[in-house]
Amino acid sequence: MPNKLAEQTSPYLLQHADNPVDWWPWCPEAFAEAARRGVPVLLSVGYASCHWCHVMAHESFEDVVTAAYMNDHFVNIKVDREERPDVDSVYMDVTVALTGHGGWPMTVFLTPTAEPFFAGTYFPPRPRPGMGSFRQVMEAVVAAWQTRRAEIEESGADIARRLAEAAARGPVAGLASRPTSGVADELTPQLLDTAVAGLSARFDARHGGFGGAPKFPPSMVAEMLLRHAARTDDAQSLQMVAFTCERMARGGMYDQLAGGFARYSVDATWTVPHFEKMLYDNAQLLRVYLHLWRATGAPLAERVVRETAAFLLAALRTPQGGFASALDADAVPAGVPAAHAQPEEGASYSWTPAGLRAVLGAEDGGWAAEIFGVTAEGTFEHGTSVLQLPADPPDAARWAGVRAALAAARATRPQPARDDKVVAAWNGLAIAAFAEAGALLDEPAWISAAEDAAVLLRDVHLVAGRLRRTSRDGRVGTNVGVLEDYGDVAEGLLTLHQVTGDPEWLTLAGELLDVVRARFAAPDGGFFDTADDAEALLRRPRDDSDSATPSGQAAVAGALLTYAALTASAEHRSTAEETVTRFAPLLSRDARFAGWAGAVAEALLAGPAEVAVVDSSALERLARLGTAPGAVVVTSGPLVAGRGAPGVYVCRDFVCELPVHSAEEVRRQLGVKIAT
């Protein structure tokens, strides 16, 4: 019999709708039920494409005995972290504070007043060295609740109080009191030089990226470094990005057959990925590789842009014109009888030499094994390998045929499930990427895809002037938009306006930023992650550091700066500068966690360039190919109004130079690097 998740829109919650666990969605009624019964709440947080979430679900939540114990002793709440990043943020802070680490699935035990008293992540069905079983953990919690309830409730209240106090100080504020190099009070060239030096010290010169395993794609840091290289002519910054991007694209984290990147690499060499493919990663990386191509003309970068765009359009585009959230990490292995089918991570993507020969024949199969690094020992599990491409094959025609044949064969295997909810923020990232890439690489269909996604957000996600976080099948969800939704959507719309000249997108972006300034502003500067009329949690979330996507504050700062450049609004520019200045201590200390704030800071120091192209279509694309950090380029709108003489007008800080009319001058003023 379905539980209380059957009417939800989240694919993750719907995955659990038939569990024997009597799951509740996050709602006041669930906590009221816990109070009525006098039992604690078991909060389980995950997301649809999470491998270990599936594992724990199969081991525990699908088990009738375990479910019966959960139902008898707890009110059980299931949360999709992608729909409710505010809930996830609050209780992830608790989990990290109590255990020293975080991750998903996240398991937190709460009082009926939502105060946490015990937390963890994945719990196995049977004890392991150093880790109790899920049943043992629940039994210990129940015993403590029944014998020491007053003490537990006091502990939960104390944790909640300390969490609120820490949030009031804030991670950036906390860093500000620590010793730095003396350049962390304001945005200066010296601060950004210090930030880049810190990144250089953490750079893996052998394999690319920053730090060790696991390695995540450093999208926001790469954007910062590309802008720093453009502003300062620092060759090392550009080289760190170029080397990292090449190693990622040639490793197993990149899908060598269909394009697109997996979530992260479990090793330091980009060989074996965690196989889920997320919209937010691929939208950001599409733009990173586009900007790398713009800075270097590298054919590999252009190929990755085209293949990643093709992947997104083929695999994640929804019938309504938006982009779905993710492809799962797991799939049922080929050849497994349905009665015994159990999804395994990476089953769709791994190969053996024999598997290659079965598709391609002995000669091409052996050649493909050599090209892709598929060995008898394997690089992954059970003697299988993830395809890599250490170098471009010498025979391009043969390579194209082999790649097409393997892609077709792989398509006959069971495929990963798709999380088809549309998340506003991540679609904003996709809109920006497709609009800009379409303009730079002359792909009108990509610009049309960006427009379709923007129309979906406008017509479905915008309700009474406010954004909703998600939709599915054209049906808007109930969860309100958070700060990153407003910042990333505004960024996407502003990019789309520059490419299409449609004033509607500029106007709508301005309206979204008005909501941010009215509803999300913090009294000490910057912004909260939730609006002032959103549901009250233990604390009002305010995360300064980037995670898989830009922090909400950094995203909004970037959008405010772009809007200011497009409209000559000194007020928006001032707010952008005040917001990004909050990140100065974090940039000075460890820019890996403030990459997008660093990118916005680079644009601030560079101007950014405000470029109006008037009746000069021959120079328009050249102007868009400029590497000037954060530059805006338009052919209509406020920047163009009143400029009668044809030419390219380059302005900074609302002060313009004389119009130029030659390609050479445009190249010089905007830092165009590649031949056209």
Automatic annotation (TrEMBL):
Q: Which domain of life is it from?
A: Bacteria
UniProt domain Spermatogenesis-associated protein 20-like TRX: residue ranges: 3-163
One Gene Ontology term from the biological process aspect of the record: carbohydrate metabolic process
Question: What InterPro entries has UniProt attached to this entry?
Answer: 6-hairpin_glycosidase_sf, 6hp_glycosidase-like_sf, Ssp411, Ssp411-like_TRX, Thioredoxin-like_sf
| Pfam families on file | Thioredox_DsbH (PF03190)
Alphabetical list of PANTHER family matching this protein? SPERMATOGENESIS-ASSOCIATED PROTEIN 20
Question: What's the protein called, per UniProt?
Answer: Thioredoxin domain-containing protein
